[in-house]
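Progress narrative, work stream C.
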Amino acid sequence: MSRPWNSLTPTQQRLIVAGSVVEVVLTTVAIVDLVRRPAAQVRGPKWAWVLGCAVQPVGPIAYLAVGRR
């Protein structure tokens, strides 16, 4: 069940913002690495990893952990 932002405690708000920042940074790092890395150094097709990076937060973590050779 969703609650309005202003009904959350300041700690909850900070945790949500911090989690969002981590998610954006992970996705950005994964996409930049994917674009710069030659296709021969990527396990599987690059386009599939780009689509996979849209699955948050599993996609970027999976690419960084197992998608690179």
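Work stream C, second folded protein:
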Amino acid sequence: MLADTVNLEPTQEVSGGTVAEALEHLFRREPGLRNHIVDETGEIRPHVSVFVDGTQSGRETPVGSDSEIRVLHAVSGG
């Protein structure tokens, strides 16, 4: 859903040693995603979940070169 918001392929290859570094790499590529994923202080928004290799994670979670990071945005409505 987030990728569609900014017309980006849903799978991206990024670099970084932590979730925060990987997200910053993604934001440099697509700045429009920043406000959807993090708040003005850089913290992950409450309605966004980040998973590293299937485990819910935070900004400082380490990531390896083969790690898979999934960013899920809550969807609501009626």
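The chain is about 25% helix and 15% strand. No further action is required on this item.
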